[in-house]
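A note from the maintainers: we've had questions about how concatenated examples are separated. There is no special marker in the raw files; a new sequence line simply starts the next protein. For clarity in this README we add a label.
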Amino acid sequence: MVIDYIKNTSITPIKTMDNLMADDSQISGIVDAHHHIWRINDLDWLKGPTQPRIFGDYSNIKKDYLISDFLVDLQNSGVEKSVYIQVNWPVKQEIMEAEWVQEVANEFGWPNAIIGYVDFSSEEARETINRLNSFPLLRGVRQQLHWHQNPLYCFQPTPDLMLEKNFQKNFALIQDFGWTFELQVFSSQMKNASVFAKTFPKVKMMLQHCGMPEDTSDAGMEKWRVGMQRLAEHDNIFCKFSGLGTFIHKNDPNFISDITSECLDMFGDKRCIFGSNYPIEKIWSDYDSIVKAFIDSTSNLSIESQMNIMKYNAEKFYKLG
């Protein structure tokens, strides 16, 4: 079995990008700050009938995706550390999710940090936070807040959940643990997200997928820019270069370059971080091509700036040893 192969051969990712970049490339030690692993039987949304979803036809990822599979995918990419992002286990199983990923990390040495899940609207939020804090690799949490007029893109029933009193009361608890928060919103919610970030200046927030630019019309992109500029004004908001195939259902280097260039103008190279969004992006791309597209999109920058985006910022943000 593949998992036995991984155990016995101890795959070590290549430490340079010579296979992806020019021979003089100095990009190494890359951190993938956004990926998932799963056992299909743990995920009702994945093992059930295929349904219309934000990322299109996902039939080719409706199977186990274990850490062994992830390590095979990344072995030639230059990635040396990774951050696991919660993947919507059934309600009230967030502790089981974190426990499983921690056990995987204990056995394989990957992933190197865990982003768990808390429902901040729940009466059990405090208990969940306290229990999650027992896992050594827990660095923060994600509760997806994105709302959209298009039901296919909508995850929450209301666009302003982050401003509700009970949500904020529970959210304030993570300040005591120094946790980060993965902020996932559309441009129409960015004004609210700006207020939210200002309310919790001590919580570092990682904006998911470059603010999810789903409307690429001139008007849609301008709305996205206005929202992104508003978020960039907050020093506690960082921008994750990830998931840019979500709405176009392909790995498009030109699109990635256009979006990351604008994000860099707003956030700067010290507040931008790379993530593969694998295996969601496996629907339309191999892993190496994802890494290459994001490195190429920053090829006009200095090596130091590229290393900030591909390694150093993530190590600092997620407290990677």
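[label: protein 2]
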Amino acid sequence: MIDLSSKKIFLFDLDDTLIDTSKSRKLGLERAYQKLVSECTSNPHKLPAFDEFEQELTKLYKSSKDEDGGKFYDYDAKVFEEYCSYLSKIGSGLKHTEFSLAARLCWHYRQTKNNSLMARNGAFELLKEIGKTDLIYCVTEGKCNYQHTKAMLTDIEEMVDSVIVTKEKVSELKGFIEQRGFNKSETVMIGDSENDITAGKSANVSTICVKHEGRNYDSFKVQADLTVNSLVEVLEHLRSKK
């Protein structure tokens, strides 16, 4: 258990912790797919329903690797190209090379994904409460410009002291804390993944794991000091200690 009343520096992960990445991605995809279907005046009924589309695309997304062997941070042209190749294989009647389905789908998604970003339930209330007296930093991994864009578009950026984008959070968090002279006993790392918790433990600060659907938290080799089901619970813990 953590005494949150003693914490003065709150470090938050961004994706799936403050931003509901899964819901945002699905909403952006649905809007992009609807635009694609509306453009297919020839045999639009042969395109799969959105749920089937999303399921198949997710499989490709999870299996896709970038040049360094890691997963893509977001859907990109390669994933859409693979999916549209899949469409032609199942006999949808649409030739993706002829109609440039992949390019159009990618273009639509780039237009819709940012407008579909949403914060997790309780995020704003929690940040507002902490920000009254304490410091808040987003410490995240990913493509620098896009991470800052997501924080800006969801209004999270203006509620925190700074957004820090790392290449490897586990190896960089400790140096970030020491460089700024933070008191480790007053610092807490809040995230949703084992990587977030491992980073906090490696930096010798307290850790809170906010559960997010789709993860098997019992399988984590590194467990957080406190595990909650939502950001609302973090806020309740914070207020109960005042």
